[in-house]
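Dear colleagues,

As part of the handover before I leave the project, I'm documenting each prediction I ran so the next person doesn't have to rerun anything. This entry is a single chain, and its sequence is reproduced below.
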Amino acid sequence: MKHSFNNLNIASFESRRSKEIAKLIEYHNGIAHIAESVVETPSKNSKEIEELCVKLKNNQIDIIIFMTGFGTKLLLESLEKRLGTKPAKRLLNKTAIVGRGIKSRSALRNFGVTPLYSKPVPNTWQEIVKVLADKNLLKNKHVAIQEYSKKNNNLVKNLKANGAGVLSIPVYKSALPPDTSLLENLVNNMIKGQIDICLFTSSQQVANIFRFAKKLNKNDQLSRSFKNIVIGSVGSNTTLALTSHGIKADYEPEVMRMGNLVREIARRSDYLLLKKRTSAKNRVDTNNWNRIDTNWGKFSDKKRKAITYNSEFMKACRKEETNYTPIWIMRQAGRFSRHYRAIRSNHTFLELCKTPEIASEVTLMAVDQLGVDAAIIFSDILLILEPLGINITYTKSDGPRILNPLRTKKSIENIAKFEIDELEFLFKALRITRKALKPEIPLIGFAGAPFTLASYAIEGGSSRNFELTKSLMYKDPELWNQIMSLLTNATIKYLNRQAKEGADALQIFDSWIGCLSPADYEKYVFPHMKELFSKINKSVPTIHFGTGTSSLLKLMKKAGGTVMGFDWRVDINKAWKEIGYNSAVQGNLDPIVLFSTPSVIKKQVKELLNKVKARNGHIFNLGHGVLPATPPDNVLALIDAVHEYSDS
């Protein structure tokens, strides 16, 4: 699918790859405005390079960090010239080599040197320090750094703080081009409001255009112009450079490449530009903002709900005709995203869930990046247990653990009265998100189903066979029903409060229900689920989702739910027929398909959509949550394929 800038004016300050970025912009139907902002010249007679050669020969360098693709090539050429090709390769291969980013690692491999890491990480200086420090590779080690055009003081400081000695090696200098007429013209066009989107592919470009604007005495005017221009940054270092000048990047691709930057912003350009200019018009300082600051204008609650009501997702819930098949993805704000991992690295999971502003930011991030048709609030199904006095901890290796599991009558008697206000952090996150979310995008709230919550609470965490849960269910039905009633009542209150605080739809996750037979489901779970659905706010559509449920679908449908969610183990057409076509359905691509290729993804999407094409009421989703190692480009390919094929 070719994405389009729709004839927007796109500025770029690319230097060595000016022609390449101009072609990319024009290929995506943008009007390219290119001005060279940086000239890089190799450093001559570098005493630091001479020192590096001596220390390599004497085995006095343990690690060399290569920071840029261009700088890597220059330093390798210098070492080859001074040491000879074979000795340079031999000495480098005796040393631990770290390449920051794809270009550095590619240049090293082309020279015949194998870097320590071949994965996307490390891509920032912070990640370099972390991966080396985590493996205890820095203490009492001698580290050489191929620098940018100027010394990275933060990197040097952090390496030294971890016990390393550091040799900084400048290999090139950056300056403004000799002829700055094109640069001056582009800066003036930005100030005049003639540019819609501005793309930055290096931190040096940022430094140079502000340096040049200062020279023109137009620094403040340039900064103000960015309030109405969508700013694309190729990656973390460039984003940090923008931040240092008081400017917030509006978009950063998952994979830090020029092609991804252009393609992904073209994909979301209309939305990003509307969002930024509308917010600026409504007095948001868009040079210094977060997603939660977005302001779409003043809407009465009634008017906002009317707009959301007519969205493609909400129409599909009601089995009405839609212009295309709406799609959202379970765990769409999760570990497959580099941006999510960056936020998560600074917070525990509970901190993330319980800090409304951050939970909201993560929720909105997925909408901005992916272009899905619904947002789902970032939270966890087990948090409802805490107000009941059930203590939870989250571990990296084992996931959630219940510290005081429910296994006896006495443990049930110790359960606290459900105080819903203890979950105010979630309700505040809903309010913040709903306000910042475009009215056309519905917000989904959710809860765990009573059986899944009970299983966690009884087992004390995850389980393969649910021995404790099912044995309690069989041996003491009275105690089982007491637990289920308690959880059902709490979940009803929880979901209804979410609807009140801004959730436009509600999903009930019964992740573990597939371990039961139909007879056991009907006896031990069905009455509680029927009560739950009967008492949820009827104005809000509900999605009833479980995994491993092929034998339970009729009973689950009978229990309730506006939309039935299917996992990937069932044929969507047969399952829909089984529960009755009067219900809307959601699903159900196997999440592992996203580990294939875009062409395979498109084929699978077409096959699935062809099965349900004749009927209204289909919401596209995976059969379960997107997995952490999923390639982000494939997630975008999925969403585009669904929109493109269902719209044709």
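The chain has a mean pLDDT of 94. The CA atoms of residues 133 and 162 lie 7 Å apart.

All the best with the project,
I.
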